[in-house]
Amino acid sequence: MTEIKFTLNGKKQILNTDPNRRLLDVIREDFQLTGPKEGCGEGECGACAVLLNGQIVNSCSVPLANVDGQDIVTIEGFSSTKQYHVIKEAFAKAGGVQCGFCTPGMIIATQSLLSENPHPDDYEIKIGLSGNLCRCTGYNLIIKAVKTASKDGDGLW
Amino acid sequence: MKSYIAKNLVNALEVLNKDECEIVAGGTDMLIQNRSHTGMSIGYKTNVLYISLIKELDYIKEDSHYIYIGATTKLESILKNKITPIILKKIIHEMASPAIRHTATLIGNIANASPAGDSIVGLYALNAKVRCQCINGERIVPLHKFIRGVRIIDLKFNEMITEVIIPKNDFSSIAFKKVAPRKSDAISKMSFVGLLKIEDDLLLDLRIALGAVYITVVRNKDIESKYIGKNIKELKENIDNILKDYEPLIKPIDDQRSNKEYRKKVALNLIKDFLLNV
Amino acid sequence: MKDISKSINKVDNDEKISGSAKYIADFVMDGMLYAMTKRSTISKGEIVKIDYPQLPDGYYIINHKDVQGKNVIKVIFEDWPVFTDKKISYLYEPIMLVIGPDKNILTQLLDSIQITYKEETPLFDWTDSVIDYHFDKGKGNRIFDQADKVIEHTYHTGYQEQAYIEPQGFIGYPEGDKTTLIGSIQCPYYVKNAVKQAIGEKDENVRVIQSTVGGAFGGKEEYPSLIGCQLAVAVKKIKKPIKLIFEREEDMSVTTKRHPSKTVFKAAIKDRKIIGLKAHVSIDAGATIGLSGVVLSRALLAVSGAYTVDHLDVSGNVFRTNTVPNGAFRGFGAPQMFFAVDMFVEHVAKELNQDPLEFRKKMLVKQGDRTSTNGLFRDPVLMPEMIEKAIKESNYLKKIEDYSKKGNYKGIGMSLFYHGCGFTGSGEKDVIKAKVKLKKDKNKKVYILVAAVDMGQGVKTTFRKLISHMLDIDIKDVIYHNPDTDFVPDSGPTVASRTMMIVGGLLARAAKEMKKRWNEEEFIVMKEYEQPDYIEYDEKHFIGDAYPAYSWGVNIVEVEVDPVTYQVDLKKAWSVYDAGKAIDERVVLGQADGGLAQGLGYGYLEVMNHKNGKIMQKNMTDYIIPTAMDLCDMDTFLFDNPYAYGPYGAKGVGELTLIGGAPAIAKAIENAIGKNVFKIPVTPEYIMELINHD
């Protein structure tokens, strides 16, 4: 047992727990935040993506030990921001959501990308989404959604 | 099993001095290798030392001869830094998705010592060295001597790799090819790095490194030096000889990702293509 | 009236984007236990002895002895045990569940169960035929007597894994005498009926509820019946909530996949034309037959592809092997056959020195032509116009001419295909007998009561839209919850591209009646499937109309092959589809992109094989599905061609969009490298072989 402190969705948290736990399990089980999903458990599919200090990481591949003192935002926390609403509308308008299992991860990837590069071209968008697997859409409508978000949310990032 | 979270280097070295540990930096590979089940802690079979939060090892710096990259520097920071060698940037750009780049480290990729580790191929070609520190001192080891085999490295139980040291060099031609089953988010079937320097039509430096075609990265300085000093025309005339030189060194395997015939043929094709395009 | 095809935002966007939609792994219940599966470590043999560890309090083992009903999964062919009693027929066959509150202890228990086997030599060759079909059209094999030339080729297709991003899972719990399951499933009533049989319970004592489904693609058609039954057996005995969620590796190692196939084609040629075809298809069922016979049928029925051939000799076998059972996957036998036949016709044209496109166009199915089983293509076939559109949009003619010059490694390929909509043969009438209900309540809310599952294809949106259009009410007043067998009738499984055409068709009929009776305050309209009277099909002899309607497609794919690494770079794809009428254009375009992505993956990327019965690509790292970097721009064009019995004319769309991807990319690669392709996936390893060996 180790004391681990971190910020989760803007709130300071202190846990006395096993640092070898995966961040994903802690988020889902201790905080009942089930937006991040487990698709592969090995950092390949991106369904478990969260923002760590504002940047996308796969929470299934992050040991809790590594987040001590860090800032974590899940889709639940991100959904109260202006940026989220622009991205959400863009995904809806483009038709970028099918089964939805990869979607929260895609939203996190979009935010991480746009926060670094507010006006990405197609190639940069593809790279930004390259760690998020989607089996339903063939990605094109998601890429379109990211482009729309970048345009509609001009100035937000 | 115990787990330690080190917040500074001295702290980490002290832990290593008293307890044998697996060292975890970003953890992206260690977690997969030791994964148990959803909802269960990572099933390490030894004590672990987490070093990711050691701020003093998160750096990229340079002096007139070398570039130094610290053990906790994330791939993403290396990618974005101006002083990172271009070939290394090219590799990092293709070796992992953004999410992995934000957590994984270059030194983790070295310590993992997978024959398919892409960055290692580039670091071999760049003549990189690693600095290993323990509580009593340190040593600097050339990377090709440090990596002894598949997932085997020359690290003593009380040591950790604290930085990688890359000699500065200018090249007139660089090439990296990650041959993977898809364009991103994939483990290489094989990878290739070619570096060379030409001045006044003379080949001054030639480096070829191949990943995932043998138990460790294939790089052979004897072959390289045979052709250094030749002019471009001679170099091109010698392509078939160069391929003959490399052919016996390329001994890949069949696995779930590809087969040995393909790996070998593509390795030779890439060497040829690199030299033809000089 | 508004055009129904005009897109609206999907009704489940908000919950899915915000992460609040509940998938099966997201459910937690008080006192919930976890189940893990103990599996065989051999591919064939018998269990001689099992040594169990001492179970701590609160831990349970559930095996075949606990199955109170029939120890077999109810699917079309019943040869799949809930838990094996003794006989092992494939690696990782489930033997028992180990259940308890702490996963750490469960994994220790799993490790300490010692099973002794008597091992036998497993069969991996295709020699044990368990199903054998044959039918002729016209003169059958006798047409070869008239041939002046015979051309023969053999085509192979590999496994394909559905690779839904959400792994399989259920939670089961007791509700009084009732055993209830919530799960990630396509077919609530398949699970319910299977569970009833396995636990030997009355209808009212089994309840199945669908959670939000994170992708399925056929992978959650019959497989969930197996784990649903296992879990139900456990719940009935232990009387506590139990959660069973697969880990990714477990999922990929043990769940059903697309059947690998081998198709041998012979063409009887006369006057440089195909006058007859002989085809034999072999598919690998794996260890259980399950749905394999129906998969084979669908492959055989499509034997002449999008072309009319008057004389056919068609046969096929299902082979049983000691490998993981294969099953449903979007397309269901059609992708295997359309790859084989569309390549074959192209190869024949080339060998006859004819322009492949002109050769194929002359053979195209026309309205009024006879199907392979002497049924009728009754409805208009728009393929000539669709091909023209695809050619124009892609600049195909110019490109194929340019790319056919040697050494540029660019290629373009075109596939022509159809999909028979709905169940094969008389399945709808004789087996499924779908029922739907529409309910109007006092507040003028209308409830859609069907067992159709939204697994991403958008049926929650399209059904609500359909009903709101027909009744001319706000879509917000149309309610459609995830199916719960306690509340919805059995409208059949969510498979076979039947959901909009068949279930939607029934709903449309119900809505028509509801509209007439709208003044009534509160009432329910029920409709049952009635087969169009022109449909007659003899399943045994393969005679008649196997499908009520057909959807059609053209795919054009452009690639570039790297001559150094033999890797394929997808440049662009164009698609033209006739799926009757889109109930929502954007939903159909989403299906089009996603289906083509899977079809392309099947064609060039997705390698899966087994070594001594063990699946070698058992995770998302080794089983390669395309990322955003791999795919390309896809332009899709929809042709309206309303079908009389579909709502607003809608036919099937889900499976259609997968079928043409593999042959289109395979042909594009052929064009790029100047060599014929005979198997998929067309990997760089295979391309190297083709380029380097003549």
SSE arrangement:
The complex is a heterotrimer of chains A (157), B (278) and C (694).
Chain A: E1 2-8, E2 11-17, H1 23-30, E3 49-52, E4 55-58, E5 71-73, H2 75-78, H3 82-94, H4 103-116, H5 122-128, H6 140-152
Parallel strand pairs in A: 1-5
Antiparallel strand pairs in A: 1-2, 3-4, 3-5
Chain B: E1 3-5, H1 9-18, E2 21-24, H2 28-33, E3 47-50, E4 60-62, E5 66-70, H3 75-80, H4 86-95, H5 98-101, H6 106-112, H7 118-125, E6 129-134, E7 137-142, H8 143-146, E8 147-149, E9 152-153, E10 160-167, E11 173-179, E12 190-199, E13 202-211, H9 221-227, H10 232-237, H11 239-246, H12 260-276
Parallel strand pairs in B: 1-3, 2-3
Antiparallel strand pairs in B: 4-5, 5-10, 6-7, 6-10, 8-9, 11-12, 12-13
Helix pairs in contact in B: 4-7, 11-12
Chain C: H1 13-17, E1 33-39, E2 45-51, E3 60-63, E4 87-88, E5 94-100, H2 103-112, E6 114-119, E7 128-137, E8 149-157, E9 169-175, E10 178-183, H3 188-199, E11 206-210, H4 223-238, E12 242-245, H5 248-254, E13 261-270, E14 273-286, H6 292-301, E15 311-320, H7 334-351, H8 356-363, H9 383-394, H10 396-403, E16 410-421, H11 427-432, E17 435-440, E18 446-449, H12 459-471, E19 478-479, H13 499-516, E20 523-528, E21 537-538, E22 543-544, E23 549-561, E24 568-578, H14 585-604, E25 610-611, E26 614-615, E27 633-638, H15 656-659, H16 661-673, E28 679-680, H17 684-692
Parallel strand pairs in C: 1-12, 8-28, 10-11, 14-15, 18-19, 24-27
Antiparallel strand pairs in C: 1-5, 2-4, 2-6, 3-5, 7-15, 8-13, 9-10, 9-12, 13-14, 16-23, 17-18, 17-20, 21-22, 23-24, 25-26
Helix pairs in contact in C: 3-4, 6-7, 7-8, 7-16, 12-13, 14-16
